């Protein structure tokens, strides 16, 4: 009897241990589900490309801190929006040295800047930038003949499409040379109402001007990026060679004896337009993917730009009631310098 009990206990114990072993063997992943390289034959994700599943959409994940040499720059899509405050140079007192007749210097106008693009794992990508600023100011020139001072509206915009080649440097920073297309658009519109005596009768005259510049061209440049903790410092310099199509339209609308007469002039020209485009930027990361950034920008076109003549009507050579020989298209330089502030998202 004792032997039977001993054999029963031994059988029960053996069955328990055997069950554990069997269950453990059943739960072991088979060879098809073990960790494999993506490129290995029989992998579970044979069509996936390296890095395609890296992004986890946690835009507010903490910033990654590491040695600059170990922290790789972002790849994938990126987007940035900035608000700009830009100083635009005025057309000046063309055709006269009387500085009391026109406001020299520049005026500040607001605008917007958008930037987006994509960078591959092979450090090749695309960058698209669109920026626009518009505003108005009054030129000097007040007298008893002027009913409304000369109002000048300026609209400045530019578009860039660049092919970017990123190069890693030994200190952990990186340099991005690029080649691309650059388009400039600049226009001035003026309006001034004056009164004068025509054929013995007191009459009014509305004088308008419209100058436009449409300049597509090529550019080459480079962008240097340095990261220090949460901060990123960027210096971007480019040279542009553009072909400018210039147009100028001027018109007088005098009121004589209750009737309105019209006198118009049209001018067109083409010109080579060289330009310098520079930017210094500072970005501060608030999370892994989102950063605030601010920058200083400078666009300098040193010749080939048509502007309106901002003299008052009675001494403006573009008006039929004005004086002077410098009328039509007169090429000059142009400066736009200012600040931007906004945010960026980088995958």
Helix proportion of residues, in percent? under 10%
* Average of the residue pLDDT scores: 81
- The CATH class designation is Mainly Beta
Principal-axis shape equals: elongated
The proportion of residues in beta strands is over 45%
Tally of separate helices: 1
Kindly report the oligomeric state of this protein: single chain
* Count of all domains: 1
Kindly state the number of beta strands: 12
Radius of gyration: 34 Å
Which structural class do the helices and strands define?
mainly beta
Order of helices and strands: HEEEEEEEEEEEE
Classify the fold: give the CATH topology: Lipocalin
Q: In CATH terms, what is the architecture?
A: Beta Barrel
The neighbouring-strand order within the major sheet is 1-2-3-4-6-7-8-10-11-12
Distance between the termini: 76 Å
* Unreliably modeled segments: 19-30
Largest sheet: 10 strands, antiparallel, barrel
CATH H-tier superfamily: OPCA outer membrane adhesin/invasin
Quick summary of this structure?
This protein has one helix at 2-27; strands spanning 76-89, 106-119, 124-138, 146-165, 167-168, 174-198, 201-228, 231-256, 259-260, 263-285, 290-306, 331-346. The chain has 347 residues and is mostly beta strands.
Structure description:
The chain has 347 residues and is mainly β. It has a single domain, classed as Beta Barrel (Lipocalin), CATH 2.40.128.100. Helix content is 7%, strand content 58%. The protein is built from one helix and twelve strands. It has one helix at 2-27; strands spanning 76-89, 106-119, 124-138, 146-165, 167-168, 174-198, 201-228, 231-256, 259-260, 263-285, 290-306, 331-346. It starts with a helix and ends with a strand.
